[in-house]
Amino acid sequence: MWVFPLAAALVAAVFAGLLVKRNIPKRRPHETAWAIALLLFAGGSFAMFLGVLSGWTSADYRAYWLLGAVLNVPFLALGELYLLVRTAWVRSAALLLLIFGTSFAFNRVRTALVAVSALSVRLPLGRDVWANDKFVLHLAQIYAYPTYTFLIAGTLWSAWKMRSQPNLRDRFVGTLQIAIGATVVAAGSAFAATGFLPGFSITLAVGIYVMFRGFLRASRPVPVRTGEPAPAAGPNPSGATPTPET
């Protein structure tokens, strides 16, 4: 089952690279936030690949938990907020809050006591690994649940706005694919909570692939109707993109 987390890591890394490339000629803050989130997702998936392939270490599990379960969804939500909210002070406040939250989570996961005996299985359960530090166990829920809700709500709202515009069909369908892929990854958390490695591994790979396909479709050039200016570049007018791995 190590091939699936490796595939998820590679697809996420390619996805992030595409976003970085798009940002070179023209800065898009929302895509920068998404690129960071995808790199975190890639890092968490790669840590899982190493753990499944050759046995888990404390360092592998800390990276898997911090990057995949705790931090990547908030960065995705930050990108969504950048698209939905234009007020400068709100954007700045959200960025500062996330920087603080990232620093706090990094320090807590880095210093948390790991129950080494729980790492002997192919997919360790968070409740067993963090049996001596319940706060770190719940840190994933504290960070991911509200930001995932905001992310999906914003994505679906964006798709709804585009539903009746024929020239935005690719963006509409691509946005829905991104939401579906995000939900597949999130649903995989149920497998992680029960230690079912095949289900979790496959949902990671499938979810990130569906999101990648959605982004590619949403990024297609928009047909310009006669007499109308071309719409702004970007995956969609209001936003959409990936989600959690817990």
Task: Please indicate the count of domains.
Answer: 1
Q: Strand-and-helix sequence, N→C?
A: HHHHHHHHH
CATH topology: Rhopdopsin 7-helix transmembrane proteins
What is the terminal-to-terminal distance?
17 Å
Spans with pLDDT under 50 lasting ≥5 residues?
A: 232-246
Helices and strands in order, then pairings?
Layout: H1 3-23, H2 29-54, H3 58-84, H4 88-111, H5 126-129, H6 134-162, H7 169-187, H8 189-194, H9 197-218
Helix pairs in contact: 1-2, 1-9, 2-3, 3-4, 3-6, 6-7, 7-9
Task: Describe the protein's architecture and organization.
The chain is mostly helical and 246 residues long. Residues 232-246 have low confidence and may be disordered. The chain has a single domain (3-218), classed as Rhopdopsin 7-helix transmembrane proteins. Helix 1 (3-23) runs antiparallel to helix 2 (29-54), helix 1 runs parallel beside helix 9 and helix 7 packs antiparallel against helix 9. 72% of the residues lie in helices and 0% in strands. The radius of gyration is 18 Å and the shape is globular. The two termini are 17 Å apart.
Features:
246 residues; mainly alpha; Rhopdopsin 7-helix transmembrane proteins
Compact overview of the structure:
By secondary structure, the chain is mostly helical. The chain has helices at 3-23, 29-54, 58-84, 88-111, 126-129, 134-162, 169-187, 189-194, 197-218.
